[in-house]
Amino acid sequence: MAVDDETRSGDAERDESAWSVGRLNNEIEATLESASNRFPTYVVGEVSDATAKSYGTFFTLRDVNGEETIQCIVWSSYRNRIDERITEGEEVIVRANVDFYTDGGRTQLNVKNYWAVGDSDRTQELEALRAELDEEGLFDSDQKQPLPQFPSNIGIVTSLTGSAREDVREAAWGRAPGVTLTFFGATVQGKNAPPSLVGAIRQADQDPGIDIIVVTRGGGADDTLWSFNEEPVIRAIADCRTPTVVAVGHEDDETLAEGVADKSAITPTEAGIVATPAVSTVRDRVGEIERQLQAGYDAIVTGRLDAFDRRVDNAVVSIERAAENRRAQIQRAADLEQRVDTAYSTLVSARLDSLDSRIGTGIQKIEHAAETEAVTATAARGRVAGLEARIDQAYQTRVQRETEHLERRIERGYQDIETNTDVQAAQQQAQQLRIVVLVLIGLLVLGVALWASGLL
């Protein structure tokens, strides 16, 4: 590819005018040294992020009225002469000179001495808020919600551009590849951080699909982590209905937000681990449960089968006994039926013979009664005939007697008339008796005929 002369000359001019990083840092160092009289000897501020090394102690000095910070170092030779211990959260006055670290391009205070003024206003406010939260029981373990063992969707509140996002994702998906991660972007430091964090936390808590909320950010100076000590953020975390995990900074960082969370983690990576089950552990546990289930199943099934076999054997024996009993009952029923048939035949025959005998006797009695009735009727007719003759004779005798003595017995005429009337009544009665006797004889003969025909 051809390059014209004008392009070559432009590149040469830029090469000559551009400084290297080393040259720039050296120039900054020289400028600061030449202007050292412009900087104060004493600086007041609040200590944070103190880290002691064998060769010296590093800490951050924050403006007591703002968010501005500067890095400080106390070399071990000076640190051993300082009577007071460097304590985070204290307001201090340091005697130092401005130093520029050329290798790192970092401006810092080279501290020669150190005096504690007392706890800063912000530290005092922090401790007052800590005491209030403690009194409300927000740090109590019995107030913590348990984390679900197998979450399907984890809501992560963090900066969408920070490394914490990737750390949580890598750790969570490394343990549970199938879990869903839903990110709620928020500003995690500075003036806008508290309202941004509160909004993201509430949005995650209102999402019904979120099982766990992870609030996290990477490490940093205490002043950059201070948003997680702000009361609105802490209250938002404490009020969550969804279980929460808070991981802010590194191992040495500690915030109130972590204290009120249901579970705290040291780093974003650990937050991803805490919020998810280890698939390998779950698989091992599932395998163990399967083995236990198999063993239990085998034991139960074997025991049940043995018990079932015994029950089947007992049932077979019972059925066989029942069959034998049934056969015996059938045999007894057959015997009984035969006995009943025999008894029935015998009884029927005896009853028929007895009935025949009784019928014959009855017929004889009826015949005898008929004969007796006939004789009685004949006798009755004879008596009736005799009675008629006697009545006629008596009548004639009486008529004659009354005729002869009529005149003499006028006074007794009525008696004679009554006697005559009695005679006539006797005749009528005799006639009626004859008729009754004939009717009785007819009825008797008819009854005998009907009875005989019914028996036959």
From TrEMBL:
Single GO cellular component term: exodeoxyribonuclease VII complex
Coiled coil residues, start to end: none
Membrane-spanning parts: 433-452
Example GO biological process: DNA catabolic process
OB-fold nucleic acid binding domain: residues covered: 19-113
Pfam families: Exonuc_VII_L, tRNA_anti_2
Keywords, sorted A to Z: Cytoplasm, Exonuclease, Hydrolase, Membrane, Nuclease, Transmembrane, Transmembrane helix
Residue ranges constituting the Exonuclease VII large subunit C-terminal domain according to the UniProt record: 138-410
One Gene Ontology term of the molecular function aspect: nucleic acid binding
PANTHER family referenced in this protein's UniProt entry, alphabetically: EXODEOXYRIBONUCLEASE 7 LARGE SUBUNIT
Protein name, entry field: Exodeoxyribonuclease VII large subunit
Native source organism of the sequence: Halorubrum coriense DSM 10284
Native organism taxonomy: Archaea, Methanobacteriati, Methanobacteriota, Stenosarchaea group, Halobacteria
